Task: structure prediction
Amino acid sequence: MIAHSFTGEVFGPAQRLHGATYVVDATFRRPTLDENNIVVDIGLATQQLGGVLKTLNYRNLDEEPDFAGVNTSTEYLARVIADRLADAVHAGALGDGARGLAGIAVTLRESHVAWATYERGL
Amino acid sequence: MIAHSFTGEVFGPAQRLHGATYVVDATFRRPTLDENNIVVDIGLATQQLGGVLKTLNYRNLDEEPDFAGVNTSTEYLARVIADRLADAVHAGALGDGARGLAGIAVTLRESHVAWATYERGL
Amino acid sequence: MIAHSFTGEVFGPAQRLHGATYVVDATFRRPTLDENNIVVDIGLATQQLGGVLKTLNYRNLDEEPDFAGVNTSTEYLARVIADRLADAVHAGALGDGARGLAGIAVTLRESHVAWATYERGL
Amino acid sequence: MIAHSFTGEVFGPAQRLHGATYVVDATFRRPTLDENNIVVDIGLATQQLGGVLKTLNYRNLDEEPDFAGVNTSTEYLARVIADRLADAVHAGALGDGARGLAGIAVTLRESHVAWATYERGL
Amino acid sequence: MIAHSFTGEVFGPAQRLHGATYVVDATFRRPTLDENNIVVDIGLATQQLGGVLKTLNYRNLDEEPDFAGVNTSTEYLARVIADRLADAVHAGALGDGARGLAGIAVTLRESHVAWATYERGL
Amino acid sequence: MIAHSFTGEVFGPAQRLHGATYVVDATFRRPTLDENNIVVDIGLATQQLGGVLKTLNYRNLDEEPDFAGVNTSTEYLARVIADRLADAVHAGALGDGARGLAGIAVTLRESHVAWATYERGL
Result:
């Protein structure tokens, strides 16, 4: 649940400071299941995703140093979250089984009519 | 899609400036249908609800004079919108058929796990 | 999944022959559960609701004798279905336990932004 | 995510040991908002509901002493959860503001086509 | 919200004149974001999609010259809409940024249990 | 609506006998539509999917010989169902038109926050 504003005429009234709820889903992909018959440890994945979101939630993104001069669009934020989750996978934070993951996608739904997904390999 | 902050320890991290998407539903209630077999003219109702939302959307509610010193909680905003729609009904903006409406409820969904509804008579 | 048209200027372009998918939910209400700890036999209720819908589905309602000269609005159809289910309850088609039901509500969702509910006692 | 079986011919194949995911929503109702402009402290409410669910989740309800000889139907479980939340309200676990609550409703959705709600006063 | 009928025994009762609500989503895909950090101008995309849908909404497709002798199945209509949006992209109606789009997908949901998607390059 | 337990520390409390509702969607993919302008006969597809689910529904999977010694995770069950549907396609049970299908995906949603999809060629 963040506040932010956008720069650029294309954004119309969204150039004003406003806000959004993002419901965030992470999807993990792999060619074959691990030895436990799962794609990923959903407990660890939920925990890591929660950790990433905690650094963004209840904030005014216009004042976050990480995003200085950046349009924090839904699609941009999807990439930020996917990249941070990918870092967590590579660091082993999703368990050893997660080393067999082939890709990740993060979807941010800002309402029932607008969402963005960023997909990348692992 | 509004920005706002809350005052009061009960709000925890939501005391910071943050934001929310509200998906807004209005429900109209009456004991019997009008002569066209409808509860309300859905075209006019959508138009009036859209007009009310336009005065709130893409704004920082902390800076709106109408809400000075007020916690613009989801439940409070549901009441504001319901009352403004009720005014529109009484002013005839939803058509003559709408004069037979008995009640109105406005629901604001801020995410898939949190919502508030305000119900009132007409 | 029905076709129909409406009579009356209030309906605008919906005066033309068009159509709709209605996703239909029936809700049953009672003060205390029956001896099996249930509100209603969901199998029988689904069967009876399915039977009612079969008489309406894949039809042009403008040509159904039951609806001659009637605007088959979403709210009107909700009542038709609720009344037919109420008849089934009274006839014992939902089982003996259903005789303790106090009320029924039928909701027709015609899209993600429009729906109507009809509620009645039993 | 519980396992259970039912006793009674009305349940058909659900007399066998099977299971269900219940997505649980709690709704709180009051005539006027508290001094913070809210119905209830959503953080405390979520915490208390989570605590109630933790005593039920990932279990075979047939083996829980609390439910010996009971059909743990969706509607029955909705009442169990509502009553436990009501106890929490009365014990002050949802905060002082929650003492102004007038009612509570608990909905368990077991799939996209079946759910049950239990409503009670406070 | 269209009326139509189908030709072919495979369609069973849907050979009769009936109707459907289609909830239509368009998804745009590109390898990298544009200079504003967005995939597409969602305002222009919504406007163009709305323009395409306006030519189909509240009609009996059996009487539209464009669809003479054609089974206007959900999957067929998804293609029609995707192709018309692709034409709009190529004509510049979604803005200069949209020239970097790589693909488009259109999904029509006719109910909670049936939908079709058509995907194509741009 | 199945009961099952899991083997492996990664599953935490889900090592106990518990249960789940799976809402199951099957998606069929092909490069061009068949002569009726459809991807697949949705009636036959629903019937075949229903037949596959009937062999799993209202059961304790721990006691099914087919799954002896297997973690019947959501992702594993998605594959089982997809493979059985693929067999049905190859056996002609989805009609001659279905011989042009290129792929199939099966999604099992166990709640509003957890799901798994298995995709394969045909």
Chain A has a mean pLDDT of 97.
